[in-house]
From TrEMBL:
UniProt keyword rRNA processing present: no
Protein name (record): RagB/SusD family nutrient uptake outer membrane protein
Database matches in InterPro entries: SusD-like_N, SusD_RagB_dom, TPR-like_helical_dom_sf
Organism (species): Mucilaginibacter conchicola
Protein's UniProt keywords contain Repeat: no
Length: 543
C-alpha cells in the first residue's frame, strides 16, 4: 500500500478542461521543466498521478444505472436511460474529458521519462509499460462508448487537438490490443510483487484486459479462450490467481478486499487518505443511508436462481412469491437488500430492514419504501455489496474497487467456449460450476453440468449476478445487442406497491427507451464537435 499512499501526498497533474482542448489538456504544474524528470521521486509521482486517473468510483458504479440492473431517479443517468440524452448531455462531455485527461497525462509521461538518467533501463521499461496500459485502457473505454474516436498516442498541441480526426473503432481496438501485447513482457508477474507494490499493473492485468477487449468484439473468441487459458493454467508465468473463499468478503472485508488473489486489477484506496463515499447513497436510511441515488431492480433480483439451480419462473423451482427471497442464490443476499433483510452491522449486531410500508413493528413510518419519496429507494431495494464495516462516518470507505477479477476470466472463458461450440462438463466445472460452488450452492442441480440447452442464457445470467454492481452489465447488454430489448419498457421494483403505478403488483418506476439506431453509441460532446469539425457526430445526434 505504500506505493498508493504516495499517490495522495503529491498530485502531479491537475487538468483543466475547456472545449476541444480536452484532447490537449495541460497540467497546471511545470511538467516541462528540464530538471523535473531527472529526479527519480518526480518520475514516480508522475506515475502515481497516472494511476489516480485510471478510473473513479462514480464511473465504476454509475454504469449500473445505465443497464437493467439499477435505477437512478434523477440526473444524467436518468436522462440517458430514458432515451432523452443528446449531444449536450453533461455526462457525455464529462466522461470524454476524464478519459482524454488521463491519456494526456500518460503521453506527457512517455514523452519525458527518457530525460531521467538514473533509473535503470529495466525500471524505466516497466514504468513505460504501466503507463501504456493505462493509456490503452482509456482508449478502450472511449471506443466502447463513442465508437470511432481519435487515437492520441503522443502529446499533442492545442492546435492539433482542434483538427484531429476520429479513427475507426476497429483501428482503436487494434491499437489497444497491440499496446497490451507489446508491454506484457515488461510487466511483473503478480506472484513476484512485493507487498508495498500491491495494486500495480502486472502481466495478468494486461492479459485480462486484452481478453475483455476481444470478448467485447465478438469475433475473436478463440483468442479470448487462449488468453484465459494462460491465466488459468500458466500461473507461474502470469500470476497465481484464484477464487476467494467468500464472495461477500471480496467487497466488504478490508483484509480480503485488499489482499485477495482474485483481484487482477483494482482501484486502490487508502482509509482516511484516498476514499470513496458512494455507498452513503446506496444504503437503507435506517442504517445511515442518505438518499437512494441508485437502486437495484426487480429484473436483477429475478435473475438470482433458486438453490436447486432452477430459475424463479421455471417449473419445479420451489419459488414462493409470498416469501420470495428464501432458498435463492446466496449472492442475492450478498448484493441486494430486500424486505425483512437481516443487516449485519460492523460490530456483528443485526438489524431487520423493513421496506414494505407498515411492516416496521416499532416505527411503521420509517419503512424503507414510500411511493414517490425522493429519499427512499424507488424500487424498494437497496445495495449491500461493497458495504464496508470499517468505513468512517457517512460510509467513507478505503476499500478497493475491483476493475478486473479472476471470476470475470472464468466467465469470459465460458462465454468464449460456448461461442466456439466447445462448452462441456470440463469447461463448466472450471467456470460456472466453480463460481456457484464458491457462492454456496451444494445441490447437484445447480453445480452439475446441465447440458447444452439454453447454455448461452445460463452463462449470461451467471455473468449478470456474479458481476452485479461492478459496472459491466451495461457493457454486456450493449455488446450482445440486447439493450434494445431490456432497456425498452418499465423498470420494476418489489411486488408490494401501494400506488397506482404497478404491473401485477410490482412497483413500476421509469419508462425506459432505447433507440437501436442511435443509443448503442454516445454523442460526441457538442462543444468539442463544434470546435473541431473533423470529429463529426454519431448517427441520430445533432450538435
Amino acid at each position: 500500500m505504500k506505493f498508493f499512499k504516495k499517490l495522495l501526498i503529491v498530485s502531479v497533474a491537475v487538468v483543466a478542461a475547456s472545449g476541444c482542448k480536452k484532447l490537449d489538456i495541460a497540467p497546471t504544474d511545470k511538467f516541462s521543466d528540464l530538471t523535473f524528470w531527472q529526479v527519480d521521486a518526480n518520475v514516480y509521482n508522475a506515475l502515481n498521478n497516472n494511476y489516480s486517473l485510471i478510473y473513479n468510483s462514480s464511473l465504476y458504479f454509475d454504469a449500473e444505472a445505465l443497464s437493467d440492473n439499477a435505477y437512478s431517479p434523477s440526473g444524467d443517468l436518468n436522462v440517458i436511460a430514458s432515451g432523452n440524452a443528446n449531444s449536450q448531455t453533461a455526462k457525455f462531455a464529462g466522461d470524454w474529458t476524464n478519459y482524454y485527461s488521463a491519456i494526456k497525462s500518460c503521453n506527457i509521461f512517455l514523452a519525458n521519462i527518457d530525460r531521467n538518467t538514473t533509473l535503470t533501463a529495466a525500471t524505466k521499461a516497466r514504468l513505460i509499460a504501466e503507463t501504456r496500459f493505462i493509456r490503452a485502457f482509456e482508449h478502450f473505454n472511449l471506443t466502447k462508448w463513442y465508437g470511432d474516436v481519435p487515437i492520441v498516442d503522443k502529446d499533442i498541441t492545442s492546435q492539433e487537438a482542434q483538427t484531429i480526426s476520429r479513427s475507426p473503432k476497429a483501428a482503436v481496438v487494434k491499437f489497444v490490443v497491440d499496446e497490451l501485447e507489446s508491454i506484457v513482457n515488461d510487466l511483473p508477474n503478480s506472484t513476484n510483487l512485493p507487498a508495498n507494490e500491491n495494486g500495480r499493473i502486472t502481466k495478468g492485468a494486461a492479459l485480462a484486459l486484452e481478453a475483455r477487449v476481444l470478448l467485447y468484439q465478438g469475433d475473436r473468441m478463440a483468442d479470448v479462450a487462449a488468453i484465459c487459458e494462460k491465466l488459468m493454467n500458466e500461473q507461474g508465468t502470469y500470476g497465481a490467481y484464484s477464487l476467494e473463499i467468500s464472495y461477500s468478503a471480496l467487497f466488504s472485508d478490508p483484509n480480503v478486499n485488499k489482499n485477495t488473489k482474485e483481484s487482477i486489477l483494482s482501484l486502490q484506496y487508502v482509509p482516511t487518505l484516498r476514499t470513496w463515499q458512494n455507498f452513503w447513497d446506496f444504503a437503507p436510511r435506517t442504517v445511515g443511508g442518505r438518499v437512494s441515488s441508485m437502486a437495484p431492480t426487480q429484473e436483477l433480483v429475478d435473475d438470482y436462481i433458486m438453490l436447486n439451480g432452477k430459475g424463479v419462473k421455471e417449473a419445479g423451482s420451489g419459488y414462493n412469491e409470498s416469501n420470495p427471497y428464501i432458498n435463492r442464490d446466496p449472492r442475492l443476499t450478498a448484493t441486494v437488500v430486500y424486505d425483512r433483510y437481516t443487516w449485519v452491522n460492523a460490530n456483528n449486531t443485526t438489524k431487520t430492514i423493513y421496506i414494505k410500508p407498515g411492516t416496521d413493528p416499532v416505527q411503521p413510518g420509517l419503512d424503507e419504501y414510500s411511493a414517490g419519496s425522493q429519499a427512499a429507494s424507488a424500487t424498494a431495494y437497496y445495495w449491500r455489496k461493497y458495504y464496508d464495516p470499517g468505513a468512517l462516518a457517512n460510509f467513507v470507505s478505503g476499500n478497493n474497487l475491483h476493475l478486473i477479477r479472476y471470476a470475470e476470466i472464468l466467465l469470459d472463458y465460458a462465454e468464449a467456449k460456448q461461442s466456439l461450440g466447445q462448452m462441456d462438463a470440463t469447461v463448466w466445472n472450471k467456470t460456472i460450476g466453480a463460481l456457484r460452488q464458491r457462492a454456496g450452492f451444494t445441490d447437484a442441480g445447480a453445480i452439475s453440468y446441465p447440458g447444452a440447452a439454453n447454455m448461452t442464457g445460463i452463462i449470461r445470467r451467471e455473468r449478470r449476478v456474479e458481476l452485479a454492481m461492478e459496472g459491466l452489465r451495461t457493457d454486456d447488454i450493449r455488446r450482445w445487442k440486447t439493450a434494445e430489448t431490456v432497456m425498452n419498457g418499465y423498470i420494476h421494483g418489489a411486488k408490494f406497491s401501494t400506488d397506482q403505478n404497478t404491473d401485477n403488483g410490482y412497483i413500476r418506476t421509469q419508462l425506459r427507451k432505447f433507440n437501436a439506431n442511435r443509443d448503442y453509441l454516445w454523442a460526441i460532446p457538442a462543444h468539442d464537435a463544434s470546435l473541431n469539425k473533423n470529429l463529426g457526430q454519431n448517427p441520430g445526434y445533432t450538435n
